[in-house]
Amino acid sequence: MIAAPHVPVLREETLGLLAAGPGRRIIDGTFGFGGHASGLLEAGADVLGVDLDAVAQAACRELAGRQPCLRCHHGSFRDLPAALAGAGWDAADGLLLDLGVSSRQLDDPAKGFSYRADGPLDLRFDQTRGDTAADLLASLDEAAIADLVWKWGEERGSRRIARELVRRRIEAPIATTTQVREAVQASLPRGVKPEPVLSRVFQALRIAVNDELGSLADVLASLERVLRPGGRLVVISYHSLEDRLVKRFIDRERRDCVCQPDTPICVCGHHAWLRPLTRGAVVASAAEQNVNARSRSAKLRAAEII
Ligand SMILES: C[S@@+](CC[C@H](N)C(=O)[O-])C[C@H]1O[C@@H](n2cnc3c(N)ncnc32)[C@H](O)[C@@H]1O
């Protein structure tokens, strides 16, 4: 059985860790279609819903019409200080980041996130600005395309794929998801299953187009300005590149000293300002994984500002 797409991943764990309740101001930095935000509102929290996607923002405004405790901001979570100012909040008690792409975005061929449907090679969360994946594939040289596929998709066949894309773009610009799918399939050695490779290539394009890891690094760097003391961060990630970044950030900021291990006396002057709320990463229960395939790759980490 497949769960309804609006059932948010790790819902109960998220609401519990954010201590959602009356009087708490919580930013949902990835509003999507409001699954987590609805739970936060039901618990009595005030919510600021942020999303880059115009359709997600329309969903936020529609819900805000019925929910006076919800405010909406169209923009990136990397600019949360501006979003807070717009909402008239000085700081928040919680921040949720449920990273990546929503199932509804994946199902919309006009966004180009999925290799399964033919559509324009766009892959921007915010289709009103920035370069599309087609722009990227038109402007980068072969080595840069291979690096992108290797770095953000961890795809070992990156050089072969880049060579095939560049060979094909001489004949016609690569402008659709189908063209990328055909180029990737043509580059594969016999016997290699195309789906996992296609999934890694589209992940790489999406991460690059939206500067996803740069945005995540920026929001983590702004955390002390966004959350008040006692404020809580919850991040749900779906691939190891994001999860590693969050894990290393929490590991560093929980320490009083971040000097190299062989330094005899501390010279860094660093002070701990985060307390982890989870031991390692929380994963979805077997029951949730059974009904919601997307939850299988989810890893949740949480921390509190000291
Ligand atoms: C996995 S979905 C969130 C689903 C949501 N938690 C729910 O319950 O419906 C991720 C959402 O984050 C948005 N997003 C991705 N990067 C973003 C960024 N840098 N700033 C704001 N929103 C972003 C996407 O547009 C997408 O709607």
Q: What descriptors fit this protein?
A:
about 45% helix, 14 helices, DNA polymerase, domain 1, about 300 residues, alpha/beta, single chain, Rossmann fold, 2 domains, globular, seven-stranded mixed beta sheet, binds S-adenosylmethionine
Structure explained in plain terms:
With 306 residues, the chain is of the alpha/beta class. The chain folds into two domains: 11-104 and 212-305, Vaccinia Virus protein VP39 (Rossmann fold, 3-Layer(aba) Sandwich); 126-209, Putative methyltransferase TM0872, insert domain (DNA polymerase, domain 1, Orthogonal Bundle). Helices cover 43% and strands 14% of the residues. A seven-stranded mixed sheet has the order 3-2-1-4-5-7-6, with helices on both faces. Strand 1, helix 2 and strand 2 (46-51) form a beta-alpha-beta unit. The longest helix has 16 residues, at 194-209. The chain is globular, with a radius of gyration of 20 Å. The N and C termini lie far apart (42 Å). Residues 1-5 have low confidence and may be disordered. The structure holds S-adenosylmethionine.
Chart the SSEs and their pairings.
Blueprint (H helix, E strand, L loop, with lengths): L10 H7 L7 E4 L6 H8 L3 E6 L2 H11 L5 E5 L5 H8 L4 E7 L4 H4 L26 H7 L2 H12 L4 H14 L5 H11 L6 H16 L2 H10 L1 H4 E11 L2 H14 L20 E3 L9 H6 L7 E7 L1
Parallel strand pairs: 1-2, 1-4, 2-3, 4-5
Antiparallel strand pairs: 5-7, 6-7
S-adenosylmethionine binds next to α2 and β2.
